[in-house]
Amino acid sequence: MWNARGMKPQAPETRPREEWERLASAAAPEGRAFIGGELLEPRGGRTFEDVSPIDGRVLAHVARCGPEDVDLAVRAAREAFEGGAWRTMDPRDRKRTLLRFAERVRRDLEQLALLETLDVGKPIIDSVRVDVPSAAECIAYYAELADKLYDEIAPTAPGEQALIRREPLGVVAAIVPWNYPLIISTWKLAPALLAGNSVVLKPAEQSPLSAIRLAQLGFEAGLPPGVLNVVPGSGEEAGQALARHADIDMVGFTGSTEVGKLMLRYAGESNLKRVALECGGKSPQVVMPDADLEAAAEGIAWGIYYNSGETCHAGSRVLAHEAIRHDLVEAIARVARTITLGHPLDPGTRMGALIDERHTQRVLGYIESGIAEGARVALGGRRVLQESGGCFLEATILDEVPVGARVAREEIFGPVLTVSGFRDEAEAIRLANDSPYGLAAGVWTTNMNTAHRLTSALRAGTVWVNTYDRSSLATPFGGFKQSGSGRDRSPHALEKYSDLKTIWSAYQ
């Protein structure tokens, strides 16, 4: 991928920006599709430029896959599934293969981290410490389940036996977003592969590079040809072709609610394939008057400004009791000022670039809309570092936001926090639940009776109490309402990628 000769070995976290930039300048990312165990040019030779949001430079010319390429990948996946080399493999051997896959991800930590940061603009320190290790851990987690899953025997009358088996669906399409390309890809790939399926992965057009490398590593680890394929391209072409394909058995999608609805429509108009969705969020953080304000401010600030707010469950909507709202806003602003905004290849940077120019203008438009609807800018609100050619936006707080304002109801997906007040617990619950989304929520209170009442009342897939964004592969992740259906992570994710078969036998 690059020539690092002449560089002394150094822990990734301690590399200075200059060394990361040298590695970046030497990188030659792969942009071809990965189908049937091979890197392939797209049919028709079409490509698109993959542009870094850090400085606007072209990282690679990437295969612009269309329906013909998708069909080729689906046929490779179907042949691999029907051939049975992976589907019927001894669970112990499947486990060993996936563990080798995880080890190759760990081995290529620096390369994958650099691809992730260059592609999406997140701080290199997060790519090194969080994204790549989390992807490897996810693959290993599901690998360890391979030889620990049991079928069931149902109670029957004497002379009969009812065996309940969990079997793979077949060919799974995984369509993933650009904010956490590696992490969310493995959330879908690992359980789908463990269940015995073949997979066609469609990365977001803004972030295709790590997905292509991931497929190469899986093949190197021993995944049979066609079991894991990658078709980069646009959502309108490659994504729609996958979702409409009559030989796809299931689509696992993470992205906007708007596109999630299209996935359901495409499934209905084609072969009624299964669809599992993890869509948008507008997650409330309810801060009660007895809360520890410093702890709440720390959790709220990192809950919105981590990854520049480009997180589906970002705690982007604060509902604060009027008695403490002003003090809370000041405390959040103090924490936000300590979160360094800068060049993503600088190890001291904790908040990097937004994904691209179009999205940056969208976020700025929301800030303008909030001001027009009566919000007060308590922090930030401006674009910065424009001389870099990148897409950088200050951490922003909009206070005194009317509860019906667009910025209080729609997903901004940027470093913009909205703050509104409430007078009592009943109003807090009503406002928190008054949203089309239900992905996550936070509760800040020192009274555990209050905490239990609120966690029971809030309609969200995850509710944190006196913390935010803590996670584990052992806990399921997904949402209520228009935040989607189905769950990623934990053994529950296997339910999406497999189905139950009853085998009823009579004997004497």
Task: Describe this protein's structure.
Residues 1-9 have low confidence and may be disordered. The protein contains 15 helices and 24 strands. Helix 2 (67-83) runs parallel beside helix 8 (235-244), helix 3 packs across helix 7 and helix 5 (124-145) runs parallel beside helix 6 (181-194). The radius of gyration is 23 Å and the shape is globular. It has a seven-stranded mixed sheet, sandwiched between helices. The termini are far apart. The protein folds into two domains: 15-279 and 496-500, Aldehyde Dehydrogenase, Chain A, domain 1; 284-473, Aldehyde Dehydrogenase, Chain A, domain 2 (3-Layer(aba) Sandwich), CATH 3.40.309. It is of the alpha/beta class.
Write the layout of secondary structure elements.
Blueprint: H1 17-26, E1 33-35, E2 38-40, E3 47-51, E4 58-63, H2 67-83, H3 91-107, H4 109-120, H5 124-145, E5 152-154, E6 160-168, E7 171-175, H6 181-194, E8 198-202, H7 209-221, E9 228-230, H8 235-244, E10 250-254, H9 257-269, E11 274-278, E12 284-287, H10 293-305, E13 317-321, H11 325-336, H12 357-372, E14 376-379, E15 383-384, E16 392-393, E17 396-399, H13 406-409, E18 416-422, H14 425-433, E19 437-438, E20 440-444, H15 448-457, E21 462-465, E22 480-481, E23 484-485, E24 498-506
Parallel strand pairs: 7-8, 7-10, 8-9, 10-11, 12-13, 12-20, 13-18, 17-18, 20-21
Antiparallel strand pairs: 1-2, 3-4, 5-6, 6-24, 11-23, 14-17, 15-16, 19-22
